[in-house]
Design goal:
By secondary structure, this protein is of the alpha/beta class. The chain is built from 11 helices and 10 strands.
Length: 277
């Protein structure tokens, strides 16, 4: 099956510092692709290149055949690529529902057939469109089990729940490709178990393509179908989780084979999400 995203020879430098050096990799169509590597390997910089935040000095980024290099972030988002951030980047004084509605902007834009007056008066097609967008957000809230906090402001939530809200906001865009920058960092074990279920259901039920940066290698071995490993700005391995964990350069980068758990069998369907409370 053709990949949804291909990076070809991506290089990125800041001044005289090479952050990425001739990185080539692909992202599975409707699958979970993990990106691993020690701190400073260039993982987040790579996501920033895909999302248009950084412009690489060399190489191509092909998304469904279209080159993304040079396109602004807003245009890339409108093509169907959504992103969660390692450092949250939520609107702290907005509620969970309002944060997710912000992500519907690309669906709302240009959707006022009744004109400015209809939008100001909030009637007819404008009202129907607003109701439809809110219903879409409610489906995402239900999926991520955020209904108990849907009207809570983001800054009043625990850190772990804020991470889930960031994940949910990205999904509220209804993307074809989801970029996740360490969504599991700062989560409790129970929250990580729910994160794993969310990822599996997105793959199996929603058919989302996912590029996922993660430091929890056990989660990577359990969930990813394909893994790319970076070290010092270079790709040092690509393949299945079991193949990558056996590459000497990967073992050396993670300081010992004991740091790389084995991958489990992959024929089990995802478990259903459980409701708490």
């Amino acid at each position: 099956m053709n990949p949804i995203l291909e990076l070809q020879g991506i290089s990125l430098s800041f001044g005289g510092l090479a952050v990425l050096r001739d990185v080539s990799l692909d992202v599975l169509h409707q699958g979970i692709t993990a990106l691993i590597g020690p701190n400073g390997a260039g993982k987040t910089a790579l996501l920033n290149c895909i999302g248009g935040i950084y412009r690489p000095g060399a190489g191509r980024i092909l998304y469904q055949g279209q080159d993304l290099v040079g396109r602004p972030p807003g245009e890339i988002a409108h093509l169907g690529i959504a992103r969660s951030f390692q450092n949250l980047e939520l609107f702290p004084t907005l509620t969970v529902t309002e944060n997710l509605l912000v992500a519907r902007d690309r669906r709302f834009r240009g959707a006022w057939p009744g004109g400015v007056l209809a939008a100001a008066a909030f009637f007819g097609s404008v009202r129907r469109r607003e109701i439809a967008e809110r219903e879409a957000v409610e489906r995402v809230i239900d999926f991520f089990e955020l209904w108990p906090v849907r009207q809570v402001r983001a800054h009043d939530l625990p850190y772990g729940q804020q991470k889930i809200v960031g994940f949910a906001r990205a999904m509220a865009m209804e993307p074809a490709l989801l970029l996740l920058d360490e969504p599991g960092s700062g989560l409790t074990r129970d929250e990580k178990e729910d994160l794993a279920r969310f990822l599996l259901r997105l793959r199996h039920d929603w058919k989302i393509s996912i590029l996922w940066i993660e430091h929890d290698l056990q989660m990577v071995m359990d969930l990813a179908e394909r893994v790319h490993a970076l070290h010092l700005g270079q790709r040092i391995a690509s393949g299945t989780p079991e193949e990558v964990r056996r590459v000497p350069a990967v073992i050396e980068a993670y300081i010992g084979e004991e740091s790389l758990p084995s991958a489990p069998p992959r024929d089990a369907p995802p478990e259903p999400l459980r409701r708490r409370g």
